[in-house]
Amino acid sequence: MPVESPAHVSLEQLRDRLRPGQRELALWQGGPLAVSAVPGAGKSTGMAVAAAIAIAQHQLNTRRQLVVVTFTRSAAANIKTKIRQNLKALGLPPGGFVVQTLHGLAWTIARAHPELSGLNQDSVLVTPNQNHRLIRTCVEQWISANARHYQTLLEGRQFDGEETERLRRQSVLRTEVLPALATTVIHEAKSSGLLPDDLRSQSNEVDDPYTVLTIAAGLYEFYQTQLRFRNLIDYDEMILAALRVLEDPAVRQSWQQQVFAVFEDEAQDSSPLQTRLLELLAADPADPMNRDRYNLVRVGDPNQAINSTFTPADPIFFREFCEECRTQNRLATMTQAGRSSRPIIEAANFVLQWVNKSRLAGVEQPFRVQAICPVDRDDPQPNANPVPEGQGLELHTPDDVYQTVERIGQRALQLFKQHPQGQAAVLVRTNDQGRFVAKELHRWYGDKLLVYEVGQRDRQSHVPVEMLTLLNFLDRPHSPDHLKAALTVLVARKRIPTQDLNALVGFPEQFLYPGPLDPLQPEPVIEARHYCNSLLNARLKLPPAQLIPFLALTLDYEQTELATADKLTERIAQQLASNQTLAAILGSLNEIVASEQFEPVDADDAEERYTRLGQLTVITMHKAKGLDWDYVFIPFLHEQTIPGSQWIPPQGQFLGDFTLAEVARAQIRASLHNQFPLPSIDAAWERAKNLKTAEEFRLLYVAMTRAKRLLWLSAARKAPFTWNKPENLQDREPCPALPALMERFPTSVMA
Ligand SMILES: Nc1ncnc2c1ncn2[C@@H]1O[C@H](COP(=O)(O)OP(=O)(O)OP(=O)(O)O)[C@@H](O)[C@H]1O
């Protein structure tokens, strides 16, 4: 019998599988195109079809390729599979394209031309821990080179010269304020293409007694020298290195000839420099300056930009690109989405409008005005806009956070009983809240509910770091840095009470072994001292090889964490054989932590683990981006966290009512948007607060739009002041969007 050739579809048939907004993307014929899509619109589905069509129409191959850029590796794997499936459906081989993350793309270009990029075969990517140490070194270097400037910071708003206070301030500046400033500003400036001298000249434009941008410039300069000296590169450096390569006209032209077009997903998360790289690649080699001839398709949702307070991505850039394209009739909007039931869509649309109207984030509007619309009746997506579960939207005001979790558990059990194949998630703002939810669910419902706490699983990677921190302390207990790091771990693991640690580490000896003439220590300090002393005792009594298992027990690790600690002990024992001195263990552990190869988190199957059927996943709102579940619970919607306020740690208030890092960030952003004169400290702090408010509301919007059939929201009347002590309940105001939702959707208000 003859083998039947598989039936192939035509380009039109492939396009017909798309809904209207997606189809515009698939009809792209060249030039720049912005696609602004609502949550659940099917961006990657649309982009994968558009990619296959472009490959087919332009007969792309290894010498002339489509470059698809995504934000994460798992998203890259996902879209690659979809493009291949579409090519197969068209009867084409799986070629003519590459899918890469932005950094992967930059790395490829930089590595291909080491003579131009300045990177050599030995350049390695700096790990987060190495970076942390590097920043600390730069801070020390800056302090020694800038004694007068440092003195100004020490004096802060006012200072009476008292010695203990001086030591406390030194500790705060060295270990908190300056490292935070360096981390923020280096990333912010570098990824915007600014050099230390640019920051210096901007500093002259601001009326600022601390000249924050000058400090930032100094720190940045030391950092760059350190990176070069150690042959390390960071993520921003990769993009800069690729851009250096593309400065060479012949090389640039050769890349432009290879790249037929660039399709970018999640474009709202790109920084200006990343965008510059994509634009260069997408230019027409025959007419490279002509922006109308850039084959650049950028798809994103400015309303889902939730990284702008900790990365230099700013939704303004993507919004500007959308505006530029709109004036040339090159903006497509994907406003139809099939993910959620109608009541959920209505609630999300309402919150978007309400937040913009309420002007809670200053003059800047947090959202682009863009409503989610349900799909047409003949939509290709099976079960699009599914029937809601019950009301689809439930708004609760439990008495306190304990009752909140009890209600979530009850509702989840009920839902799983009716729909054993359903998926559910509790979305929380912080890992602390997640831990609380998981613990309470277990207390109320034991094994009746299958709960998967994402934060707890991910915390595994902290085990080696925590062990190293405590062992460093045991090795040199009188080092203020080691003592502070160890105390920080103990507070985080709730072994000792929260307190201002800077006050303890000024005189480590006096803290650890107070003499009879020393001032009486307050209760929290005594608790911390006893804990530290018991650890030091163990150091004397136990053989070094047993210290890690001992520390793991004393930190009250859970089963999986204990297993991780055991594995770590075994690994070190294998490496050191009989030479298990504390110094040797520290050396080995340092290496393990620096290489970050112990227990790598398996990111690729993460999505599947988070959305298993019959499981209640406890996950942060940030991590939930891009995912969806049938039933989504969002508890603890309190004003204190959403929108919350920019926090000034009390120990840093001697500088003023702001943080240097956020002030510098706001000033740099103002310069990028050409807003001169740059804002003063107070005005910059105001902007930082507005940025945070806007982002928190976008985060709420992202969280709400994860729900397919039921969206359950709540704000308890009483909640803890800090989640470190959940039993300390206080009256709490709800996030202002919640009462507004209750007024608008009264039938969804649950007793
Ligand atoms: N044309 C289509 N035909 C069939 N299914 C579709 C179509 N478009 C989208 N879908 C389905 O809709 C769901 C949502 O799509 P997707 O996750 O790509 O949306 P998104 O726009 O990336 O969402 P978000 O912005 O919230 O991350 C997916 O399950 C996808 O398979």
TrEMBL record:
UvrD-like helicase ATP-binding domain sequence ranges: 16-341
Superkingdom of the source species: Bacteria
EC number: 5.6.2.4
GO annotation, biological process: recombinational repair
Keyword set, alphabetical order: ATP-binding, Helicase, Hydrolase, Isomerase, Nucleotide-binding
Domain UvrD-like helicase C-terminal: 362-626
Enzyme class: isomerase
Cross-referenced InterPro entries: DNA_helicase_UvrD-like_C, DNA_helicase_UvrD/REP, P-loop_NTPase, UvrD-like_ATP-bd
Organism: Stenomitos frigidus ULC18
PANTHER family: ATP-DEPENDENT DNA HELICASE SRS2, UVRD / RECB / PCRA DNA HELICASE FAMILY MEMBER
Chain positions covered by the region annotation Disordered: 376-395
Name used for this protein in its record: DNA 3'-5' helicase
GO MF annotation terms: 3'-5' DNA helicase activity; ATP binding; ATP hydrolysis activity; DNA binding
PROSITE patterns: UVRD_HELICASE_ATP_BIND, UVRD_HELICASE_CTER
The keyword Nucleotide-binding appears for this protein: yes
